[in-house]
């Protein structure tokens, strides 16, 4: 099963109205009791953001999701969602979900943000946070298309997921945390997730330094090459300098010359 991923996506603000409220739209790929309860308990207006996020992200089965996608669009207003066509890709994606909730006017609270809830869920579920920012250019339809493309990538990669699409005050857009670089689709690298945590211990536990090839090379050096070199040096040291040619005994060079 694919590893659990918690994702935050940031989009450009569309409008600036009612800065103290923003909509919250959530849907899941499976039947979600928390979403169904929220849709019947909370009124369309006057909801508190902390209460909403707490109700969705603090349930006992939240860690059963393979991926939790949190889409934060600064400056988003309910009128932006009402302006979407019933046949738009985002509307179609939400309408075909087994469970969904739409709260158009949620009051912003300064106690905690969606980022704080993301950190809390990541710690609780032992998941990692993938934060990225889609391209900022283009029209609203083009930005919606990019968002839907990423969400469809999540849908094809993770069989069990939860999406929360919400807004935040536009001034908080400048306080975004540092995001990880994404190449192509932000979820392309998650098809085969890996564990990036280094094991505890010394360097020999973290990295395999003594490989079979290295061990074989060391054996050859110590038991073959070094003895051969030592033997060669010893043999060269034992070779003496050639002796000078000496005249035989009884030989007199002067007498030999007189003869």
Automatic annotation (TrEMBL):
Q: Output one GO BP term.
A: (1->6)-beta-D-glucan biosynthetic process
Sorted alphabetically, the Gene Ontology cellular component annotations on this record are: endoplasmic reticulum membrane
Q: Where is the signal peptide?
A: 1-17
Keyword Chloroplast, does the record have it? no
Taxonomically, the superkingdom here is Eukaryota
Which ranges does the record mark as transmembrane? Answer: 214-239
Keyword field: Cell wall biogenesis/degradation, Endoplasmic reticulum, Membrane, Signal, Transmembrane, Transmembrane helix
Topology class, membrane: Single-pass type I membrane protein
**Where in the cell?**
Endoplasmic reticulum membrane
Similarity-based family: Belongs to the BIG1 family.
- Protein name per Swiss-Prot or TrEMBL: Protein BIG1
Q: Which organism is it from?
A: Bondarzewia mesenterica
């Amino acid at each position: 099963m694919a590893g659990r991923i918690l994702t935050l996506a940031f989009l450009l603000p569309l409008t600036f109205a009612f800065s103290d409220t923003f909509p919250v739209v959530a849907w899941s790929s499976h039947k979600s009791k928390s979403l169904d309860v929220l849709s019947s308990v909370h009124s369309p207006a006057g909801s508190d953001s902390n209460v909403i996020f707490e109700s969705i992200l603090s349930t006992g089965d939240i860690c059963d999701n393979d991926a939790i996608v949190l889409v934060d669009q600064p400056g988003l207003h309910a009128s932006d969602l009402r302006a979407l066509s019933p046949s738009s890709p985002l509307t179609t994606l939400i309408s075909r979900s087994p469970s969904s909730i739409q709260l158009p006017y949620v009051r912003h609270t300064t106690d905690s943000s969606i980022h704080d809830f993301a950190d809390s869920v990541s710690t609780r579920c032992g998941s990692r946070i993938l934060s990225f920012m889609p391209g900022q250019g283009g029209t609203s339809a083009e930005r919606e298309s990019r968002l839907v493309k990423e969400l469809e990538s999540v849908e094809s990669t993770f069989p069990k997921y939860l999406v929360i699409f919400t807004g935040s005050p536009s001034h908080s857009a400048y306080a975004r945390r540092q995001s990880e670089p994404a190449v192509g689709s932000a979820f392309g690298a998650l098809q085969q997730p890996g564990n990036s945590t280094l094991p505890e211990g010394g360097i020999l536990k973290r990295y395999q330094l003594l490989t079979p090839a290295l061990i074989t090379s060391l054996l050859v050096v110590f038991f073959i090459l070094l003895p051969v070199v030592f033997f060669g040096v010893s043999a060269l040291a034992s070779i003496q300098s050639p002796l000078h040619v000496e005249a035989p005994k009884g030989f007199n060079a002067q007498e030999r010359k007189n003869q």
